[in-house]
Amino acid sequence: MKTPVTNGHEGLLRLIETDQDYFLERWTIRMEAAGYLQHTTAKRVDCMVALKEFLHPILADLESGGIPSDFPELLRRDSGWERFLIESSRRHRARGITFDMFLGCFKTFIHSLLDVIEAMDAEYARKVEARRLIRLYGDALEVLYLQDWIRTFPDFSDGRLDDMNRLLTLEKCRFENILNATSDLILVVDGTGQVVNINAAVKAVMDEAHVMHRPIWEVLSLEGDSVDELLRYYPVGITCELAPFGESAIYRMQVNPLKSVSMASDQYIFVLTNMTTQAMQRETLERIVDEKTEALRREKAQLEEMNITLRNVLKSVGREHEEHASNLAAKVNTLVLPALERIESENDPAIRKGYVTVAKDQLTRLLPRDSGGMPLLLKLTQMEMKVCQFIQSGHSNKDIADLLNLSVETIQTHRKSIRRKLGLHGRSVSLFAHLNTMGLDSALGS
Question: Which residues contact 111 (CB under 8 A, 6 or more apart)?
Fold first, then answer.
């Protein structure tokens, strides 16, 4: 790893805080090589605080120009620069850490800082000076640790160790109770993928003997046959849904590495949250949405069909309107206008009156076919229309009665009704002559 830096060894030291991941990586490697990693309970955040507190007095002295020439000067200094780290050593001692283990861990801490500086892309002289400062302050702290340890050791009784162990046991039990109280399934998996611990919720749904010390991918029927391959299918921090115990129960699973909080741990926590109810509700909502969507699709199809039908109807109405207008114009030109021209040119009043009658009848034919304005002949019944046909052809009442298989009296009744409907009642006008004068051959179908 090569990290670009700012000018001067001060910049090198400041950049160590930005290379936290590489620092933790080197410290983990050196702690493991020294045999301390498996005994440490240090969390990632604790390591970062220790790094900051160690670098802070060095950077403060660089800014003020007060860098000592050797570590005895640091030992004599009464500025309290070492106070936080001394308190940290006391906390470790309270947890039962021996002095040689604590000092060994501190040595790996110093060497890890030197590794980070060595990997930086900077001038050799600046890297040498930065390493010198780290060793200088590190050596002073080692002496101060030893002095404080010797000075306070007589006061550190076995009783205090017992109290601390009792508090640690109570804290451990408290967290175990919390994990067992939750309804989530929690499985702790080591770096090889073996299940090393489970909570009560897991025991309630699975036989403990078939879970413990078995690969997690076999226990939960997951993809992959190694931790690396499993994490490619189920990335850290990403939730996924699965049904490890059959389709009757659906769980949301998330994988979390303990390394994110404890530098000494290579374990993972698999958390499974039962979401069967939510999944069923979601399926119900999806089904309702699908049904509504299908109903809308059918309704849309029906509306489209109706639109097509309506467009066809409008086109048909338009064509009928055009045909009606064309027919109306033809009738006016062939029937009405010639009659009007003859009226205009005829001098004989009787003949002109006849033309007027014909013109009126033709105009009546052009009126809408309703009961108030329909042509006179359209007021006749079907039987009366047949009788009119025979009368127009010159048949007598008896002939018509024989042809229609009716009595003569019935035919006479029909004639009276026809005269009344044609406006001839009480007038001395021959029905035969009137029908032929009106030119109604086509209207009567003869």
Answer: 26, 30
